[in-house]
């Protein structure tokens, strides 16, 4: 069974309360007679919520801002309006058109704009929003101009027309429940985890094998799609669309809805939407000043409820929840092992590598060969170019000159996620974890790298990740949030994340930094155990005793150039190495 | 030829308005890395203060101007402590939303307090403009162009020659470092907001006589001002000025020779093109590689 | 517990829906949708003033059927969805017997399906001719529609002013777009094709390109359809700055109170088609005087049509002898030559009540009545 199916089927059971909630809403709508006003409000809240759930994906999961959700909502609404009224399609035809149009629009905008982030993305989406408003107003032949399009029909289903308010409302609630469950489950899929990884730490996500750009585009497109579906439901529900319903102001309202509810939580988003649909309505008694009060509430929410209602509810219920119990026996970590006839053959070969930043030559003509199942140490004084070299090797920097071959393949200039896919994993000197995720989820992002030897089954992914956590001694903390861990434990989780990817080559950038003596000894043992699994390790380290204990060979850099290379004993006696360290004034006695 | 000159003048005139609002935007961005979505409403608020003082209380023009600016000082202070300060340690997003909320609050408070009627604010000078050949130079546009130039010069002197200006610069470049060097960062940021509010206020008072004083006057201008700052290079003062003028000229010519209803689209299409091809803007540094 | 939100919200809504029973001595309630906030908030205030004044006058004269008239006002935020919500809120109260709908045609279009479903008379001010051609029996228009105004405009410009070269400037919104079409047709009937037709988006801050195009076109008359008073003001100022001296005839905004205040001398000498003018009839004069006395501002068409709507509704309720929707509808359709501030009301089968337009002239800031053009109904 493919992974996504197993996740979906496994998760759907957990969404039972939500299904029941949807059912209860349906029963309520069918049994309680509602005035037209109440129907309109509920209809608005329901259809808006579908669109705002798109923001849960793009903003909540993937951490990208968009101020164009009303534009996609409008594209969906207009697709249904034009499809049914002008082209004579059925509602379902219009809905397909809406989904296609919003998906294409979202993908195109995402592909062109997601290489930039933050304020720029905010601006681009505003621009898109404004241009759409102008087009809807002025392209009269197609959009019917500012008059809008009235008389949009409602669908019929199994021969039963949903033209009545209650029937259509039931249909909308069913759609919303389905979308809500979809968005909630998405969070626990490979894609959802990749999105959250991108949100928490884009760089770490990319070296863990996540194609960050593609994940962002997918998130953006999915979000646009949900916007389109919401718009389609809205158009048919209100049977009338006009350009001013899809303005920038509406996009801002959508964004506020997501933030009020807590963008990262699908359920919170839905609650936020309902509240913000009701809020201006319930504030109507304020007449002239009610919009001012609305604006003030937005500011207060931002200040006092940073994670929205969902975050607030989480804090309240935290104490009530019992932590899940994990099996205490440690499943063995099975990684590929190097067969003895491959041992000591070169795995990574670097020739004439250079990296210049403007006039600064951080690396110059560096040669390096790392042999299979060896621990190879890279040492050198501060500023000698070690971290730059690791950054070039892991694809974060493009080399200025030189060749890199990995497992007999030329990988010069390859992107980080491509290298990760080929089996190159790394850790960072300043730890880069996905801070809002649990230990297990962090490691799973590593385990799910493309090209891993795992089957496509979710259970295997979890098993491998737990095994990796146990291997580094963090098995019992699997469900803890990484943000609560000590520094040393965070390091271990980061190593486990790299380990779970079953790398051919593991790059460790100063793993001993900030560790106390006991922890360092544990690290030495861990390194040797990892070697025992058949791994190849390239380690940057300042701690010479540690290096001596583990290294099979050493390369020394100084001022961006290789000054020594070979067996530890020979290298550490090399006069060039000694003078490099002493010249720098470091009081390190070479053994 | 006359028509081209006339259009160019109109473009530069509108462009100076965008530039003036963009100036305040850039200052706040440099000090706090926040894009202030209420900057246009600063202008609107000041223009209404001016209307109140000059038209309703009957104060002389320049006295009213001082009253309006004094009002903006208080306004900037309140904005700093009410909208920005509580969120200063969070990511850009909550602050951005908070300024959007502030924009709604400002517009609707003025609506509730003053009522919906737009007002006709007289210009700083009584002359209507010059006729040069067949080209008409609107007096108030000339005032705006002159004022923008003067403010840029003044700002330059302030930043480069005064201690407070240098401290502000330090704050905007590296808050932590500035703090270590004994710069009172909190006060500097408050000053930035006050200064931006005053700048926005000057823009509002100057623009009022041209497009009238109305609740919505700031919104449309602010959006163009954003576009101007990006075209010029975000955070770059001379970029914002040139971006504003370029934008004004492009949209005026676009309207004249391509389509009037799509006038606003030209500005945005140019912006889009910039973001695609040269996101760092005309004067911006190349966006740094991440490490 | 976490899943209970839908339930909570729905039951909260249930509470809103509970409707108290009506008592005989209760006032007759007329629901009114008006922009209290948003871009048209200013005209909203005038509309409410006009309606309130009419209700007070009716009540002072003893009310209708022994009951007072009471207005229930909801804000439409100057948006279409706002109008839809406001209307549904008003219709959810069964005590509201008739409704005053917005003056913006696009908002009336937006609520049209709900109006049909609700089945009670809706008195509106939108002037898009199609609104009374929707086969919606509950729509009653209290302003002359645009087909009438543009016909009057063409006739006055060509016959009275003797102008042949027309330039048309319009907003690209519903109002402007439909008027351009109608005026072009009306001119065509007189054998004239406009030399320039130029649209713009509302809230333009600069009109230099348009004004230069008008100047170049050599037009001897400009017809303008604008919505925002600020647009009208800037346009006027720039026309004068660039020395355009063509005759100018505009939609009602050109003589709206605020526009006159904003533009001042720049609009002197212009003509307007105005559905309301204080000098067009004795009723109009009385309304104007009373309105000024009460609100201390000049009455305009916004206040005039809502005033008429409430007044005529009161007459119809009295004639019908009940507030039952069908009877009320018949009574409204039977209204013939009932004088109002906007002119004499006679409803045709479509629900159009007015059939004439006033031509007025801005005489140094004062709006002077020129003539009334009645068309066949």
From TrEMBL, chain A:
Keywords: ATP-binding, Cell membrane, Membrane, Nucleotide-binding, Plasmid, Transmembrane, Transmembrane helix, Transport. InterPro entries: AAA+_ATPase, ABC_transp_permease, ABC_transporter-like_ATP-bd, BCA_ABC_TP_C, LivM-like, P-loop_NTPase. PROSITE patterns: ABC_TRANSPORTER_2 (PS50893). The keyword Nucleotide-binding applies. The keyword tRNA-binding does not apply. It comes from Azospirillum oryzae. This is Branched-chain amino acid ABC transporter ATP-binding protein/permease. Its main location: membrane. GO terms for cellular component: plasma membrane. It is found in: Cell membrane. It comes from the Bacteria. It is a multi-pass membrane protein. Residues 348-584 form the ABC transporter domain. GO terms for molecular function: ATP binding; ATP hydrolysis activity; branched-chain amino acid transmembrane transporter activity. The chain crosses the membrane at residues 16-35, 41-63, 70-89, 121-140, 160-186, 217-240, 252-279, 291-313. It holds the Pfam family ABC_tran.
TrEMBL record, chain B:
It comes from the Bacteria. Keywords: Amino-acid transport, Cell membrane, Membrane, Plasmid, Transmembrane, Transmembrane helix, Transport. The chain crosses the membrane at residues 6-29, 41-59, 65-85, 92-114, 141-159, 180-203, 209-227, 239-259, 265-283. Coiled coil: none annotated. It is a multi-pass membrane protein. It is found in: Cell membrane. GO terms for biological process: amino acid transport. GO terms for cellular component: plasma membrane. Its main location: membrane. The keyword ATP-binding does not apply. Belongs to the binding-protein-dependent transport system permease family. LivHM subfamily. This is Branched-chain amino acid ABC transporter permease. It comes from Azospirillum oryzae.
From TrEMBL, chain C:
Residues 27-363 form the Leucine-binding protein domain. Coiled coil: none annotated. Pfam families: Peripla_BP_6 (PF13458). CDD domains: PBP1_ABC_HAAT-like (cd19986). One of its GO terms (biological process) is amino acid transport. Gene3D superfamilies: 3.40.50.2300. Residues 1-24 form the signal peptide. It comes from the Bacteria. The keyword Transport applies. Keywords: Amino-acid transport, Plasmid, Signal, Transport. PANTHER family: LEUCINE-SPECIFIC-BINDING PROTEIN, PERIPLASMIC BINDING PROTEIN OF ABC TRANSPORTER FOR NATURAL AMINO ACIDS. Belongs to the leucine-binding protein family. This is ABC transporter substrate-binding protein. The lineage of its organism: Bacteria, Pseudomonadati, Pseudomonadota, Alphaproteobacteria, Rhodospirillales.
